[in-house]
Amino acid sequence: MSKSESTSAQPVLQSDRAESVFKDFKPPYDEGHAVVEASRCLFCDEPPCQQACPTSIDIPQFIRKIATGNIKGSARTIFDANILGMSCARVCPVEVLCVGDCVYNHMGQPPIQIGKLQRYATDIALAEGWQFFEAGPDTGKSVGLVGAGPASIAAAHQLRRAGHAVTIYDKRDVIGGLNTWGVAPYKMKAEAALEELEWVLRIGGIDIQLGIGVGPGEGDLPFEELEARHDAVFLGFGLGEDSSLEVPGQDLEGVHGAVDFIECMKLGALDLGWVKRAAVVGGGNTAIDAVRELKGLGIPEVVLVYRGQEAGMSGYQHEWKAAKVEGVTASWGSQPLAFLGAGRVQSIHCARLDENKKATGDMFTLGADLVLLAIGQGKLGELLGGIEGIALERGKVVTDADGATGRPGWYAGGDCRNGGKEVVNAVDEGKRAALAIDAYLRNKGG
Ligand SMILES: Cc1cc2nc3c(=O)[nH]c(=O)nc-3n(C[C@H](O)[C@H](O)[C@H](O)COP(=O)(O)OP(=O)(O)OC[C@H]3O[C@@H](n4cnc5c(N)ncnc54)[C@H](O)[C@@H]3O)c2cc1C
Ligand code: SF4
What we know:
Helices cover 33% and strands 17% of the residues. By secondary structure, it is an alpha/beta fold. It folds into three domains: 24-128, Alpha-helical ferredoxin (Fumarate Reductase Iron-sulfur Protein, Chain B, domain 2), CATH 1.10.1060; 142-238 and 380-444, 3-Layer(bba) Sandwich (FAD/NAD(P)-binding domain), CATH 3.50.50.60; 242-377, 3-Layer(bba) Sandwich (FAD/NAD(P)-binding domain), CATH 3.50.50.60. Mean pLDDT is 95; it is low at 1-9. Iron/sulfur cluster is lined by residues 53, 55, 57, 59, 82, 88-89, 92, 94, 97-98, 114-115, 118, 424.
């Protein structure tokens, strides 16, 4: 696709994508199960589940509508609060959000399966092609959005509802950000993310320009040009490349960044037949996703290599438990010092750390013919270096609660603002910023 070509059409995904082998970890409800589960809801007056949802979906209301057979109304309630409600139903860590706060948890009863009910209603809405929203009357104003991930998509949809023209620029050739090419395929595959986006884009008038990076780089669209083209700007460019360990052997074949590897698995074919033992370095959610993905791709031995101990992992415990059930092992208190091998990695030379992550003086070597580094992603805030009124804090874009930066008309949301949270946070921040941009543009007049 040429750099200047404008499109809202979906890219065609390869049919032999490695992610295709995965099955849904949480199978969907049929009608009978959905109605029975919905009927268990106590419809609390001040529902803690709703307070735990970053997009504040009216959960009792959408569940009540399922219980009474009003699926269309249920889906409308969900999408009105969260336009990526179908994705979120699959990818939200509900155990620490809505489901985790269900009052049944304190009553010795299983909590309501809110994510599965949300999936039930939103899947039907998409399959039926129900449309709930239309573009508002044209305001004559336009907004330029950087990045086509959940934050910008949510912002763009809300801005169209308000009648503003929107253009999204993304440096990649595929839309949806990490929701398309990052989330684990046993939660959602790229094709489902793209189907939802196609449905979202039916509001019309969201101009998507793919293959266009915005920033100071060669060939990028400069920020001054972006500002000159539009009446307001939304920054939703997410995080940067996988961080590296800066140890010898990092450039050996077979050593990769985990997010980079996951993107390759989600969007393309992979030949991993030669891998007998894989290691993933890290203890966060990306590391846990990566070990489960490698196991699911058929690698016989997969080991998590983490500096700390099991109890100190930053990744969700429920996800790590699932990884262990699937046969993943761990090497705790292990600090890689070098990757060893001739051309291709064969092992990792590690220092043993104690419970306080202090070196014990012991060294050991761990065999691995594939190593993924899941130790965080860089921040892209430096793209904005020197733009008057934009402040950064440890690489994150600083804004007020509504996403406004210190530069008039410039807003930000999602991972580039919050440092890396969940899809549902990006949707919430994108939507909030869009409401603030709408108010700004209406006050500005002209
Ligand atoms: C491996 C992994 C698994 C995850 N799994 C889950 C999960 O299961 N559940 C969950 O809720 N969250 C998950 N997350 C987090 C979630 O995906 C992110 O919080 C969310 O996608 C952030 O949305 P965003 O729009 O801010 O950024 P992104 O989704 O990162 O989108 C940013 C977009 O900006 C584009 N871009 C970057 N720089 C430029 C530039 N200079 N010019 C133009 N475009 C640019 C990028 O190409 C990208 O498309 C996961 C994250 C990772 C890394
Ligand atoms: S969007 Fe996520 S957190 Fe909110 S109700 Fe749905 S599944 Fe729960």
